[in-house]
């Protein structure tokens, strides 16, 4: 079985796409492959890798950590997983990076809270001989260049396209004039911007829809709940809300349940188990699976390849998958 998994992984790695970035090319992991992650080859007990994520209060990062732990089990590395509390604390994440430099890790795999402010600390890590792999939220290219970090592999998804597909799924169900809204993540964050753009593009393609301003809820359910209170007071006829992650969608759904409004179509992003439950219950229309465990796994295995002197793609995109009621077991 391990041999079969390795063959599958090798086949996936061969799917190299043309890329406009300098350095190693991009590769894609197709959505048609089962979400079980492929086996890593070879034991690497002498390597110490730190995975720095956002808060475990978001189940997405719990899943990401599971994938990292699977890579650890298969390779025998020493693995530390650190998180920020709260998940918006840039200062704490920078302290975590600095502490891992002092502890002598060989590689850091990071989902950055702030894609610009984290870069100088990562530059210090790089200068100390530590390999850097970026997962989930992509580090700002201008900040990387300004800090002379010219090759930091990125593993993630096309957030713009994933949000577009989810919002399109919602938009296709609306055939008469309707107000819709987009609840954004952290203002200025690259992922938040991409998902907002994708959803807006999908809604604009349906001439029946008018997008009304909603604002940001910083990826949090409680802030989305409070935002929904204000939003529906200002626009009581809204027929659909696309949220840039599932936690915010869950916050909006909580508000809608409290006021007895079951007609609003709600979409999200992350495919959390709670979101899947809401879809099964008819409270939510769609979410996007960005395969968090696979991202965490690939982050660690890519770090190991760098430590072994092997080539890795500069960009490795994991394809997203739409999750709706038709694809979920009752």
Task: Outline the secondary-structure elements.
Layout: H1 2-13, E1 16-17, E2 26-29, E3 48-53, H2 59-75, E4 78-83, H3 90-103, E5 107-110, H4 119-127, E6 131-135, H5 141-146, E7 154-156, H6 159-171, E8 178-184, H7 190-204, E9 209-216, H8 221-234, E10 238-243, H9 246-258, E11 265-267, H10 273-280, E12 286-289, H11 292-307, E13 315-318, E14 321-324
Parallel strand pairs: 2-13, 3-4, 3-5, 5-6, 6-7, 7-13, 8-9, 8-10, 10-11
Antiparallel strand pairs: 1-2, 12-14
Helix pairs in contact: 2-11, 3-4, 6-7, 8-9
How do the strands of the widest beta sheet line up side by side?
1-2-13-7-6-5-3-4
> Roughly what fraction of the amino acids lie in strands?
15-25%
Kindly state the percentage of residues in helix.
40-55%
Number of domain modules: 2
Instruction: Give a quick account of the main beta sheet: strands, pairing sense, barrel closure.
Output: 8 strands, mixed
Mean pLDDT: 88
Q: What's the order of the H and E elements?
A: HEEEHEHEHEHEHEHEHEHEHEHEE
Record field, number of beta strands: 14
Fold-level CATH name of the largest domain: Rossmann fold
Regions with little confidence, pLDDT below 50 for 5+ residues: 1-25, 30-37
Structural class: alpha/beta
């Amino acid at each position: 079985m391990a041999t079969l998994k390795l063959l599958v992984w090798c086949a996936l790695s061969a799917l190299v796409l043309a890329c406009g970035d300098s350095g190693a090319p991009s590769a894609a992991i197709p959505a048609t492959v089962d979400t079980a992650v492929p086996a890593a080859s070879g034991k690497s007990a002498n390597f110490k890798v730190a995975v720095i994520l956002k808060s475990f209060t978001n189940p997405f990062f719990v899943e990401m950590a599971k994938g990292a732990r699977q890579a650890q089990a298969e390779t025998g590395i020493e693995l530390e997983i650190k998180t920020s509390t709260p998940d918006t604390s840039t200062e704490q994440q920078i302290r975590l990076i600095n502490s891992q430099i002092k502890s002598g890790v060989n590689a850091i795999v990071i989902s950055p809270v702030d894609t610009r402010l984290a870069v100088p600390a990562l530059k210090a890590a790089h200068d100390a001989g530590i390999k850097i792999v970026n997962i989930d939220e992509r580090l700002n290219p201008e900040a990387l260049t300004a800090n002379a970090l010219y090759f930091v592999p990125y593993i993630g998804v096309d957030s713009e396209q994933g949000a577009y597909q989810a919002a399109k799924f919602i938009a296709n169900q609306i055939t008469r004039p309707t107000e819709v809204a987009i609840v954004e993540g952290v203002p200025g964050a690259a992922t938040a911007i991409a998902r907002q753009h994708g959803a807006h593009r999908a809604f604009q393609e349906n001439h029946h829809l008018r997008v009304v301003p909603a604002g940001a809820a910083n990826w949090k359910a409680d802030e989305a709940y409070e935002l929904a209170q204000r939003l529906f007071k200002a626009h009581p006829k809204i027929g659909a809300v696309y949220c840039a992650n599932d936690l915010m969608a869950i916050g909006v759904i909580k508000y809608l349940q409290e006021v007895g409004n079951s007609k609003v179509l709600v979409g999200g992003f992350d495919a959390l188990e709670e979101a899947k439950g809401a879809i099964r219950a008819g409270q939510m229309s769609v979410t996007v699976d960005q395969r968090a465990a696979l991202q965490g796994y690939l982050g660690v295995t890519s770090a190991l390849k760098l430590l072994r002197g092997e080539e890795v793609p500069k960009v490795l995109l994991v394809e997203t998958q739409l999750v709706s009621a038709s694809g979920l077991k009752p």
